[in-house]
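Ticket #4471: structure output looks truncated?

Reporter: J.K.
Steps to reproduce: submitted the chain below (492 residues) through the standard prediction queue, then opened the result file.
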Amino acid sequence: MPPLGKTASRHYVRPLPFPVALQYEKATSMPSSTYISTRGGISPVSFCEAVMMGLADDGGLIVPQQIPDVRDKLEAWRNLSYADLAFEVIRLFVGKDIPENELQAIIQKSYATFSDPHVTPLKPVGPIHILELFHGPTLAFKDVALQFLGNIFEYILKKTGRKLNIIGATSGDTGSAAIYGVRGKPNISIFIMHPHGRVSPVQERQMTTVLDANVHNLAIDGTFDDGQRVLKEIFNDLDFKTEYQLGAVNSVNWARVLAQIVYYFYAAFRVQEQTGCQAIQASVPTGNFGDIFAGYMAKRMGAPIRRLILATNENDILQRFFNTGAYECRSVVPTLSPSMDIQVASNFERYLYYRFGEKPEKVRAAMAGLATNGCIRAEGADSDFAAGQGNTQDTLDTIRQYYREYGYLLDPHTAVGVAVAARHHLHGVPTVCLATAHPAKFKDAIVQAVGQDLAHHPAIDGLFDLPTRCALVPATKDAIEAFMRAALTSEP
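Returned output as attached by the reporter:
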């Protein structure tokens, strides 16, 4: 694979007559390297402190104090390789916490693990552009952020002499990507909860076949939402969090969102290069609101994005909110796109912070109302978003259509995004659909859609011959904390 960075292949586009970006009142050209909580209960912290804190100590989510306006940088950025672009974006949010040469090395190391030299290649397929985010070690978009986060953790721990115990909850792909990001790294242990029997067989195997001593897989008796609830309860147990030096890899960790901002710029530049259009719209299959929130941040920074299309499956709490203003919890429905089988989206609070005018008191009131009544209401609409649902039949039909008409296999999550995008055409604005996983991770859905066993990848095919290790644990705070205590006591 060709090396990434300044020697990697570059892309060039003709200059555009003017940048297309919304004007946001609080945009600034200054770097944003200090962070606060959406609930307003912590003093400003640095980038490294934010990474290590994970969930804010007041129960909120960490956000930058200011969002940099980068519209004056777009022309300089559009010719960069992926790794170089990542450096330019990420450095704005890191400040002086990490020297620039060391940050460059971390980024180069993170994306050297990807099988495609462009890291997130963009491919025209029929009427849309597919941004392939699945060329990392676990064949899912989570690798883009978690390879970076694992290396950031390793860097901070080496500099400070600290240890870190990571606790995370996954609906499928986050767990394996997080595990691959930190497996075997010194001074780190990782505990990943997944809903027993509610992830795909491949997703389960990708996690449970990793037998490194610092990796602990916990199958919980419940849903992913139960795992997220337990995760937040554990982080809100500040005595336990401090004693066991807890860290987060879920998208509650700001570094996850930060790394994902990069590929929205990269995709927009590549589409501009291919089409000459001024701006794109991006369709994002989402359940936890992390990936699409990264796009929202990119748009606020000045990326040439006209709007974001939020695509859900039958677990459609997010699309109902953007279409009705009501965020109301319902029961989780199992689907062919299990990573989106979520009702309580952990990153939604970050969006509410901006929707409510960056007023922490409104966020606190909204989250208290959600806990009490299972509902949040917001007035008005947000023109940054369109939203829709792609159900199981839509998913199968779209996989079948794109294979038969274009010879391209979509995984079921990506198919949801493509199906919803088809209903939200904007004249003269190309659509980028984020491909969040390799189809080989969801073989049964592919067979059901096209009637053939077509989805294979060498990294997947060998998993079922490997030994596994996993513990079945109740979905309660006390049970998970007890498991962690016992495991950490027995570790060398």
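Triage note (M.O.): checked the attachment and the full token line is present. The first strand starts at residue 27 and ends at 28.
Status: closed, working as intended.
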